[in-house]
Structures are given as structure tokens and as C-alpha cells.
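Database export, one record per block. Field names are fixed; values are copied verbatim from the stored entry.
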Amino acid sequence: MTQIKADEIAQLVGGVIEGDASVVILKPGKIEGSQTGDVTFLANPKYANFLYETKASLVIIPSDFVIEKPLSVTVIKHPMPYYAFCMVLNQYFNPHTNRVGIHETAIIHASAKIGENVYIGPYVVIEEGALIGDGVQLYPHVYIGKNAKVGNKTLFYSGVKLYAECIVGNHCIIHAGTAIGSDGFGFAPTPDGTYAKIPQIGNVIIEDHVETGANCCIDRATMGSTILRKGVKLDNMVQIAHNAEVGENTVIAGLSGVAGSTKVGKQCVIGAQVGIVGHITIADGTQIGGQTGVPKSIKEPNQQFIGSPAMPVKEAFKSQVLQRNLPELEKRVRALENIIKELKKE
């Protein structure tokens, strides 16, 4: 069992410790249900009361938090306690950082280049010319296509498919069932009313520190590249179409789709079940609420949108108020029509 002292954690996260710096930490826990030996955190003010009741041994709290009652627990003050807690989990409690070895059932082409300290699980297939970086972990049934590249310290969970010529950077996490480099949705109408497949000869480039949820689909470009820039985070079952580009540190929630050749800016936040049409641009810092449909470009940065079609939040709220009042407005209109009819009779 992992044993860490509180002052080691304070040094790791760069926080200020108050209380017993030698207290021993055994595992992480929730602030409302922790036990002796647990490390936890307080980031949401709604949970502040639990700080005075918790049985945890160490709590990471905001630097500006005002302690109003005596504490029996050691605390570390940090400007971003949730981030600090993530650092602790990654450093001491991450179960996916120490696997090393190549399983005997893995099929690896002789021309593939495999880095040091890798884990290649059962029934993994690595094709001709593929490049696997140092510290990569490939869980069972992962497929790496011809001339594909996987950067250092990247993790593929079971069933991930990386098609030929596609590139995934360093320190990425790709969850189970995700397909990277499947064909873009490209078909040309023919004279007889059928559709001819347009060969998709581009690739996908995923930069460093990207994470995708389970069962995402990132399509290869028709020509050129479909690109996820550094720090992008995708939730489960997100679709990124051919030749789309998602900017740095943009996050996209589950069941959303970005259509072909659309460029999404940096630091955007896109809610669940959002649909974005093709061949448009989304400005940096845009926030899009769940189930929004985006039919045209958003040109001004740092704006908020909801609704279908998408509209600025304030306008959308006004529209919703009007919609709720429509039945009453209809009654009033009909009443006025009746009055006009009576006046015409006179």
C-alpha cells in the first residue's frame, strides 16, 4: 500500500501546509466519506461544512478559504485545489503508469519500431512501419496501422484503432473503442443516382496531451489532415469529421459532432449533443450549451450560445420567455380579432 507523508504532498503541489506535516496518507477519498489515512480536497463551497466533519487525514483547500472553526485535520492551502488533487492522484495513485512488457500473443511487424519501457497487451496488432514511443501502453486488442505513430507516454485502452499514417502525440489518453483515421464521409453523386466513394487519402494528427473518451470517431481527411491541437479533451462518443480542426485546450462533451472542414478555435467549451455544421469557423473562447445547433460561423471570441439555431444566451432566454407566453398571446390575438369582427358589423 502506498504511504506518503503530508509534507511530501505539499512539496509536490507547491502548497502551504497547516497542521501535522508528518501525517501518513494511504489513499484518496471523498471529503464527505473519507477515513483516516485519506487525502481529499475542497473546491466547491457547497461542501465546506464537510471540512469540519471529515475523518480524512489531509484536505487540500483553496488558498483564500477562511477557516471558521477548529480543525482536526491537516490542510494544504493551494490556489487550485482540484488541480492539486489531480497532481496527487497522478503521482501516487494512478494504476496505469507502471505496466511494462510485451505479451506473447501480440503481433508486431518486423519493421515496426518499439520504444523502451512499453506495455503491449494481449492480441495487440502493430503493422508495418509503425512507430511506438517510449513508455507507451497499449491495452488488449489495440490496432496500430501501417506507418502510424504513437508518441511517448501515451495510453491506448482496449479496442482502440489507429489507422494507417495517423499520428498521436505524447502524453495522450485514448479510451476504449475510439477509432482514429476511419474514412471521412465523402461520396460524389453519379448520373444514375448512386454515390461514388471519394478516396480519403489524408490522415489524422493528434497533438500532445489530448484525451478522448470511449467510442469517439476522428475521421481522416480527404486530403491533408484532420487535427486535434494540444490539450483537446473529448468526452464519450464525439464525432470529428474529415478535415476538421479543433483548437488548443478546447473541450467537447458527449454525443457532439463537428462536421467536415470546420475549424473550432482555442479554449472553447462545447456542451453535450451539440451539432456544428461543416465549413464554418468557431471563434476562440466560444461557449456552446448542450443540444445547441450551430448553422453558421461564430466570429466574435468569448461569446456564449444556446438554442437551435444557436443564438447568444441573452437573446435565447428572451426567445424562451416569448415561447412560454405564446398560448396566452394567441388567446389575446383571437379576442382582438373577435372585437374587430364585431366592430365591422356595426
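Remark 1: The radius of gyration is 27 Å.
Remark 2: DSSP finds four helices and 40 strands in the chain.
End of record.
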